[in-house]
Amino acid sequence: MSPARLWLVRHAPVLAPPGTCYGQLDLPADPQATLQSARALATALPRGAVLHHSTLQRCELLAQSTQALRPDLILKPDARLRELGFGRWEGRPWAALARAELDAWTAQLATYPPGGGERLTDMLARVGAALHDACAAGPAGDVVWISHAGVARCVQWLLGAPGRAPDAAEWPANAPAPGAWAHYPLPARTPV
Predict the structure, then answer these.
(1) Lower CB density within 10 Å: C or N end of the chain?
(2) Is the pTM value of this prediction over 0.85?
(3) Which ranges of the chain does DSSP label H, i.e. alpha helix?
(4) CA 9 to the chain's CA centroid
(5) Any idea what DSSP says for residue 22?
(6) What are phi and psi of 147, to 5 degrees?
(7) What's the alpha-carbon Rg for the chain, to the nearest Å?
């Protein structure tokens, strides 16, 4: 029996102008790209998988589209899998944000609330709690999260550097492309 994996599936591209900071802004995803992603995911997922998904519509749509193709899949919304909240920055072009605010966020990545929104330490705590629950469920099989780039980066951090506050130089830069996914071995216990 192969070890359980955590599937980190990213929603399809959002319907927003390129370069927009959207975070927890509840924007829809491109319907055609979502359907293409759902078809690929439906083919790849193990039988009877539970699709834990962010409560933002771009993730719900992918979860629902995948389940429509694979009725054996079970949907489970989880607000802990939402993207980082960027407060008043959301909906604005990244290029229009004050350089001083962006620099302050970079300098204090773990504790600075971007746009007055959510601190990365708070996001890591909620993603960590979801990861703890996934690990605590035991070796029942793969765990599937349909979520966001920020959540994928949080998981990479939690698996690779547990217990340390991140800084901009070490923060993971890679995440699955929109509509794609990555696998990680599901730890036997929560990395804390």
Answers:
(1) N
(2) yes
(3) 31-44, 57-69, 99-107, 120-136, 149-160
(4) 7
(5) -
(6) -150, -140
(7) 16
pLDDT per residue as tens digits for the range 15-62: 999 999 999 999 999 999 999 999 999 999 999 889 999 999 999 999
Structure tokens at 50: 């539970």
- Distance (Å) of CA 185 to CA 4, 7, 138: 6, 9, 13
The single-letter DSSP state of residue 98 is -
Measure Cα distances from 167 to 86, 131, 143, 160 in Å. Answer: 18, 21, 28, 14
Closest residue by Cα to residue 51 from 64, 40, 36: 64
* DSSP state string for 168-190: TTTS----PPTT-EEEEEPPSS-
Q: Which domains, and CATH codes, for the chain? A: 5-185 (3.40.50.1240)
Q: Would residue 179 be called left, alpha or beta, if left means φ above 0 and alpha means ψ between -120 and 50 degrees?
A: left
Report which listed range, 49-53, 64-68, 168-172, is most confident: 64-68
Buried b (16+ CB within 10 A) or exposed e, 89-99: bbebeeeebee
